[in-house]
Amino acid sequence: MSRYRAVFLWMLLALIFAFMVSGMIIYSAQIFHSEKDGIVQIMQSIAIDACRYRSRLRYMHGGDGTYAGYELPSGLRNSETGTFMVSHDGGQLVIICSTAAGDGSIRAIVDDDGILKVIDLEGKFNVTQ
Question: Taking the model in full, what pTM does it have?
Fold first, then answer.
């Protein structure tokens, strides 16, 4: 009887260990997606701010129909998830975020209609590696 108990306990421990490993894998995947979603949410805030700038007239400190001259507000440059930068590419605004840990980046564009489109995922965000 004690031999069966020992086998049962080892099987129970193996099952508990498997559940713990599965839980850690699911948790790390959730953190990954949460970080990516947080960065895209901040990029969306930047896109909204840039669209407001673009729609204002130049004498009202706006872009008068373009993103030229747009600068990030100081509150949107850095966050706990990463550092954000913008550049102008024709009629589009390019937003780049480098993660705080330096292990990934996301690049997106804001088109003429003010729509944010994620176009490039690098580092840990590039799941095709």
Answer: 0.76
CA distance 56 to 74: 20
Structural domain contains residue 129: no
Supply 57's token pair.
């007239």
Q: What angle do CA 91, 72, 103 make, to 5 degrees?
A: 95
Rounded CA-CA distance 124/106 in Å is: 10
Question: What letter represents residue 21's amino acid?
Answer: V
* Total domain count, the chain: 1
Q: Is residue 94 in some structural domain?
A: yes
- Residues 61-108 have pLDDT tens digits of 888 888 888 999 888 888 888 899 999 877 789 999 998 888 889 999
Q: Burial letters for 17-50: b for 16+ Cβ neighbours within 10 Å, e otherwise?
A: eeeeeeeeeeeeeeeeeebbeebeebbeebbebb
Angle, CA 62 vertex, CA 82 and CA 116 arms, to 5°: 45
Query: What is the reported pLDDT for 83?
Result: 93
**Domain ranges, residue 107:** 2-123
Query: Beta partners for 117?
Result: 109
